[in-house]
């Protein structure tokens, strides 16, 4: 199943409704093009943690991701382009199935070293950020396994 709420003008006031979607066995959740500045925490054992493979959060106003994002171990694609993220949580390294991570056009200063744990990662896009040097990306990608 999939839920498409792209471009619906959702704000943080509707975040409880978004959290209710976590109980559904969704494989895809598209929240692109809304006004969200934060996401509700993902509960351990919720249907979303077992089923979701695609999470689309492009073109919102997110300034952080919850650390509970790491519970989405079936996630294969995470789209974060065009937000206001200054960092990614270390728990991103727990997304063991992740193949695509797009986080262009944010305010990222670096990537967490835990990105090196993403063994299935095929595509990483982080241009148009505040990353000071390529070394900050290389350090994250080629860090010794933690």
From TrEMBL:
Name of this chain's protein: Uncharacterized protein
Pfam families with a match to the protein in the record: LRR_8
Any GO CC annotation of this UniProt entry: cytoplasm
Domain of life, per lineage: Eukaryota
SMART domains membership: LRR_BAC, LRR_TYP
UniProt keyword annotations, A-Z: Leucine-rich repeat, Repeat
Coiled-coil region(s): none
InterPro entries assigned to the protein according to its UniProt record, in alphabetical order: Leu-rich_rpt, Leu-rich_rpt_typical-subtyp, LRR_dom_sf, LRR_domain-containing
């Amino acid at each position: 199943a999939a839920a498409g709420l792209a471009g619906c003008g959702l704000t943080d006031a509707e975040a409880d409704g978004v959290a209710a979607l976590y109980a559904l066995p969704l494989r895809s959740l598209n929240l692109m093009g809304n006004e969200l500045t934060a996401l509700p925490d993902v509960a351990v054992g919720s249907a979303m943690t077992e089923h979701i493979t695609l999470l689309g959060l492009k073109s919102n106003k997110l300034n952080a991701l919850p650390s509970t994002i790491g519970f989405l171990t079936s996630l294969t694609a995470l789209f974060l382009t065009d937000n206001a993220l200054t960092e990614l949580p270390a728990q991103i390294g727990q997304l063991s199935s992740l193949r695509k991570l797009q986080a262009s056009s944010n305010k990222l200063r670096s990537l967490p070293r835990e990105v090196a744990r993403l063994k299935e990662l095929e595509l990483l896009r982080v241009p148009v950020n505040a990353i000071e040097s390529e070394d900050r990306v290389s350090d994250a990608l080629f860090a010794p396994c933690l």
